[in-house]
Design goal:
The protein is built from 25 helices and no strands. With 705 residues, the protein is an all-alpha fold. It is found in: Nucleus.
C-alpha cells in the first residue's frame, strides 16, 4: 500500500481516520470533497495526505511474571559472581537466606518513615544492634569493622581478674539495683565474646567497689568505647542501653563539676530505648512454649530502669523527663511480677514507689517544669495526706523478705523528698534551689519571717523525722555494704544530711525555733556518725564513692555547721523559746526531759551503729536468679519517735555476705594500680565539686554565708 492511500483504497487493513499531519497537530481531520485522497487541511497547505494503519499495543506483563524474570536475572548474576569471587566458608552456604533478608530490609526502608517507630525487633536484633547485615559491606570494610583490642588484649586487666569482677557483680552488686541481670553461669569469656560493651560496663561498675585506681582506668575505657559505638558508628541496641544504665547507677564521679553527666546519660538511654522500640508495645509474638519470656523480661527491666532513672533525675534537677509513662510499662511491670525470679518481683515492687512519687509530683504541679502556679497550705496538706496513705499501703503490702537495703533507702528517700517539696511549697524553677528554703540569709541578719502555721510546723516535723529515719537506715548498714552501694544511693544519704542542716538553721535563726530545739534536730550526732561511717568505708581513699562523699559530708558539711555555731550570738527567737509562755519551772523541767531523752537517743544510736557491723550470717546467699538476698522482716519499721530514731538490732540481719562469696572477700585482686588518695579539700563550704551551680546532685545545695 502506497503512502498516499486513502481509506477507500485500503481493502485488506483498517487505516486511521486522521492523516499523520492532523494527528501530529492534534486537530480534526476533515475529508476534502473535491480531492478524495486528501483532507481539507492538507489540500489547503498543498501537502501530501498520508493515512497509516494503527499500531498494535504490546500486552503488558503481569507483576508476578516481571518479578520472576527479575529473580531469574539476579540468579544468573550471582552465579557469575560466584565464579569470580572465592567462596567463604559460611556466607556461601547462607547466601540465599541473606538475599531474602536483604530484600525484606529494602522493603522496610522504603516504607513510610512514620512506621519506623513500630518496627519489629527480634531478640537477636535487639541484642546485636540495628546495623546493616555484614554481607552488605565489601570485604575491605569488614576488616575495618572488626572490634579493636579491649582491656584484656592490651594487658590492662587479666582474664582471671575479669572473671572475679563478673562473678562479684552477679552475686553481690546486681541484687542491689537489679536493672541488668546476668545468668549465674555467665563467665567473663562468654560475656566478652557476645556483648563486649556490656562486659566492659560490668567490670567498670564492679571496679568502683573494689579499687579506685582500676575503676578510673576502666571507666575511662567504657566512656571511650561507648562514644565510638554510639556517636561515631551510630549503633543502637539493647546492649548499649544496658551498658549505659550501669554507667548511671554505678556512676564514677569526675574530677571537675562541669563534667557531670547524670542528666545526659539518663536521657541518652531513654531516647535510645524509644528509637529501638523498647518503650512501645512489641509486635513480635511472645514465646508461648514457656511460662516466662526471658527476652521480654530483659527488655522490661531496661525500659523500667530508663523511666525510673529519668524520673528521679528530673525530680532532683527540676527538668523534664523525656520518657513518659505509658500502658506498655504497665504490662512490663505485670510481666516482672509473674516472673519466677525474685529479683524481677523485687524490681516490680520498687517501681510502685516510683509511681507513687510521680503521682505526688503531678499533684504538686511539678510534672510540668514550665509552670509556676503557687500552692496553698491546704493543697500541700491534702497531697501529703494522700502520699502518707499510699506509702503506708505500700509498706503493708510488701512482703518482709522483699525489704532489701536499697529498697528501704529508696522508701526513706522518697518520703524525705516529698516532705521537702511540701516545706519548699513545690518550687519548679530550676534556679529555685538557691532561694528561700534552699539558702541561708546573709550574716548581716536573718530575713523577717511570718509565724509558722500549725500545718507548716507539722510538715517540718515530718520532714525532720524522715531525715532521721533515712540516716538511721544508712548508719545501720555494715562497712562492706557501704562499699557496695552505688553512687546513686549515696545521693540519698547526702539529701538526708542536708535536710537536717537546713532544719537546724531554721531552728537557730527562724520561727521554727519557737517549737523545736536544736537538741531535737540532733544534727551534731548525725554529722559525726555519718562522717565516721564514710571514713571507715572509704578505706583511706581506696574506695572512690565513700571517699568522695566523705569530702562533701564529713569535711564540708562539718565546716558549714561549725561556721553556723561560731556565730555564738543567741537570736531573739531563741530567747523567746527559752522564756516563752511557760513558767521558769516548767521550762526547766521541759529542758531536762529533752536533754535526758536526747542523751538516751544518742547512746542508743551509737550502740546500734556499732552493732550493725557484726551480724551473724542468718540468711545464706543464693543465686540472684533463683532467690533474692533480703533483710529480716522482724523489727523492720521502728516506731515514729521524735526523740529517738534507733532501729532494731536485726535491721539488716539477713543482708550479709554469704559463704558463696567468702572466697571473694579477698577482693580486690592484686591489680597493678595504687589506690587513689583523696587530697584534703580547701576550707569553705563552696560545693564546687559537684554541679556548676554549686549544688549536689540529688539534694539542694547547702546554704552559704
Amino acid at each position: 500500500m502506497s503512502e498516499t492511500s486513502t481509506p477507500q483504497e485500503a481493502t485488506g487493513s483498517q487505516l486511521n481516520r486522521s492523516c499523520e499531519s492532523c494527528r501530529s497537530l492534534k486537530v480534526r481531520c476533515l475529508p476534502n470533497p473535491s480531492t478524495p485522497h486528501q483532507c481539507q487541511r492538507c489540500a489547503k497547505g498543498k501537502r501530501s495526505c498520508i493515512f497509516v494503519a494503527p499500531q498494535r499495543r504490546r500486552p503488558r506483563k503481569r507483576t508476578d511474571s516481571r518479578v520472576a524474570q527479575l529473580e531469574k536475572e539476579m540468579r544468573v548474576m550471582r552465579s557469575l559472581l560466584k565464579n569470580r569471587i572465592p567462596e567463604e566458608d559460611e556466607e556461601s552456604e547462607e547466601s540465599d537466606d541473606d538475599h531474602e533478608d536483604l530484600k525484606s530490609s529494602g522493603r522496610d526502608h522504603s516504607a513510610n518513615s512514620d512506621d519506623a517507630r513500630y518496627m519489629d525487633y527480634s531478640p537477636e536484633l535487639l541484642t546485636h544492634g540495628v546495623s546493616v547485615p555484614d554481607f552488605a559491606f565489601p570485604a575491605g570494610l569488614e576488616e575495618e569493622r572488626q572490634p579493636v583490642e579491649d582491656v584484656i588484649d592490651r594487658g590492662i586487666l587479666s582474664i582471671d581478674d575479669a572473671e572475679q569482677l563478673v562473678a562479684y557483680y552477679i552475686h553481690e552488686l546486681a541484687p542491689l539495683f537489679p536493672l541488668v541481670l546476668l545468668p549465674h553461669t555467665t563467665t567473663a569469656v562468654s560475656l566478652r565474646a557476645t556483648k563486649p560493651v556490656l562486659f566492659l560496663s560490668v567490670i567498670a561498675a564492679t571496679a568502683i567497689s573494689v579499687d579506685a585506681g582500676l575503676a578510673a582506668v576502666l571507666n575511662r575505657e567504657i566512656v571511650r568505647l561507648y562514644s565510638e559505638r554510639f556517636f561515631i558508628e551510630g549503633e543502637k541496641s539493647l546492649e548499649l542501653v544496658q551498658a549505659l544504665l550501669l554507667m548511671i547507677v554505678f556512676y564514677f564521679p569526675p574530677a571537675s563539676p562541669l563534667k557531670l553527666q547524670f542528666y545526659q546519660y539518663t536521657h541518652i538511654a531513654s531516647t535510645m530505648a524509644l528509637e529501638i522500640g523498647l518503650a512501645n508495645k512489641r509486635r513480635v509474638k511472645s514465646d508461648r512454649r514457656t511460662a516466662h519470656d526471658e527476652t521480654l523480661a530483659e527488655q522490661a527491666r531496661a525500659v523500667i530502669g530508663c523511666y525510673h532513672l529519668g524520673s528521679t533525675v528530673a525530680m532532683k534537677t527540676r527538668r523534664p523527663n523525656l520518657l513518659q509513662f505509658n500502658d506498655w510499662m504497665v504490662e512490663c511491670v505485670r510481666h516482672l511480677e509473674r516472673s519466677p525470679h525474685r529479683t524481677d518481683q523485687h524490681l516490680a515492687i520498687w517501681f510502685e514507689l516510683q509511681r507513687i512519687t510521680d503521682e505526688a509530683m503531678s499533684s504538686f504541679g511539678l510534672d510540668d517544669t514550665s509552670t509556676t502556679s503557687p500552692l496553698t497550705e491546704s493543697r500541700v496538706q491534702a497531697v501529703l495526706r494522700w502520699f502518707d496513705k499510699r506509702m503506708e499501703a505500700w509498706k503493708t503490702n510488701t512482703p518482709s523478705e522483699m525489704l532489701t537495703v536499697p529498697l528501704i533507702l529508696e522508701y526513706r528517700s522518697t518520703a524525705l523528698a516529698m516532705y521537702e517539696l511540701g516545706v519548699g511549697e513545690g518550687y519548679r524553677d530550676p534556679d529555685a534551689v538557691k532561694k528561700r528554703y534552699f539558702t541561708l540569709p546573709t550574716p548581716e541578719g536573718p530575713e523577717a519571717q511570718s509565724p509558722l502555721s500549725a500545718i507548716r510546723i507539722d510538715i517540718n516535723m515530718k520532714w525532720m523525722n524522715a531525715a532521721h529515719e533515712m540516716l538511721d537506715a544508712v548508719l545501720a548498714c555494715s562497712t562492706d555494704t557501704m562499699r557496695k552501694l552505688p553512687n546513686l544511693m549515696y545521693t540519698r544519704l547526702a539529701m538526708g544530711v542536708t535536710s537536717l542542716l537546713k532544719i537546724h538553721f531554721s531552728v537557730r535563726t527562724g520561727a521554727l525555733g519557737e517549737v523545736v530545739t536544736p537538741e531535737t534536730v540532733n544534727v551534731h550526732f548525725y554529722l559525726d556518725a555519718v562522717a565516721n561511717k564514710l571514713a571507715e568505708a572509704s578505706g583511706a581513699g581506696k574506695y572512690k564513692i565513700p571517699s568522695r562523699w566523705y569530702q562533701v559530708i564529713g569535711v564540708r558539711g562539718r565546716d558549714w555547721y561549725e561556721r553556723l555555731e561560731s556565730r555564738g550570738e543567741q537570736t531573739p527567737v531563741e530567747s523567746m523559746a527559752a522564756s516563752g509562755s511557760q513558767g521558769p519551772s516548767q521550762s526547766q523541767s521541759h529542758n531536762q526531759v529533752q536533754s535526758q531523752n536526747h542523751g538516751q537517743s544518742q547512746g542508743q544510736d551509737a550502740m546500734n551503729v556499732q552493732s550493725m557491723n557484726t551480724f551473724p550470717v542468718s540468711v545464706p546467699m543464693v543465686d540472684p536468679r533463683d532467690g533474692y538476698v533480703a533483710m529480716s522482716g522482724t523489727g523492720m519499721w521502728p516506731p515514729m519517735d521524735v526523740q529517738g530514731h534507733s532501729h532494731n538490732p536485726h535491721f539488716f540481719m539477713g543482708y550479709q555476705q554469704s559463704p558463696h562469696a567468702a572466697s571473694s572477700q579477698q577482693m580486690p585482686p592484686q591489680f597493678a594500680y595504687e589506690p587513689q588518695r583523696m587530697p584534703a579539700p580547701a576550707a569553705g563550704m563552696e560545693l564546687d565539686g559537684w554541679l556548676p551551680d554549686g549544688s549536689i546532685f540529688g539534694m539542694p545545695p547547702l546554704p552559704e554565708f
